[in-house]
Amino acid sequence: MLCIQTQALTKRFGRVHALDGLDFSVPQGAIQALVGPNGAGKTTLIKILMNIFRASTGTASVLGVDSRKISGKAFSSIGYVSENQHLPPWMRVGAFLEYLRPFYPTWDMQLEAQLVQKFDLPLDRKLKHLSRGMRMKAALASALAFRPKLIVLDEPFSGLDPMVRDELGSALLERAKEATIFLSSHDLAEVEGFATHVAFLDSGRLRLAEEMSSLSARFREVELAFDAPVAVPATLPANWLQFSASDSTIRFVDDAFNEETLRAEISGHFGPVRSATFTPMTLRTIFLALAKSSRKPS
Questions:
Q1: Which CATH number fits domain 2-215: 3.40.50.300, 2.40.50.140, 3.20.20.240, 3.30.1490.100?
Q2: Measured between alpha carbons, how far is 41 from 18 in angstroms, rounded to an integer?
Q3: What is the pLDDT of residues 56-101, one digit of tens each?
């Protein structure tokens, strides 16, 4: 079952296509990370899903509901926290949580107490006097305490210290047992630690969307060493990214790694190799390779 789905989703701001024909889905129960460079369209997508923006064309659904109809009671099943979440500055943390309880029939007082303790939230302090990290904790506590079916987070780790990021990540993992989590982030190392699915958005277009385990398995940094310089064929496999040759060394990224197939291709293109190394890649190095390969030579 799909928790989020878009079809041919497009959003234009004047002549700029923030989203361009986006076909995308998030399976129920996933911890789905949406990554990409600044201006890729991540926040625009989330705001369309949350019915803050309207799409120019195409459709989007959330928990089986047209995103254009997401309002009021629909948010009793969705916990949403944005990067610059506005919280009433004059309210104390305890009063803020108390104010929200009646809006959510599924609000769990025991879970609220656990989150307050876990995040060490000062209930008697005004929200305006909290650090950015503590305000994010308060916002997340308010989004989790009613046990939503879907948790949507826009750049939740941005600007936070490692300790706070770890606490937020831990809280999300605990809730993942009963909710789908959809988050955008620039913090690839943090995402890599707990996401089950990842999608890469670039210039409003989806470059890939797959399970994290599949992505990690199919990418390798390849380095070949030869006894002498070798001639580079005019045509190389399309899955060899960032190809470079220097003296007697060749380097590239293989985005469809299969060791047996790769060794056969190397032998067919270059003949005998003195040594070949195939190094697993982090999420950061994978997306750097994808971003660089998408740029057209100037």
A1: 3.40.50.300
A2: 5
A3: 999 999 999 999 999 888 899 999 998 778 899 999 999 999 999 9
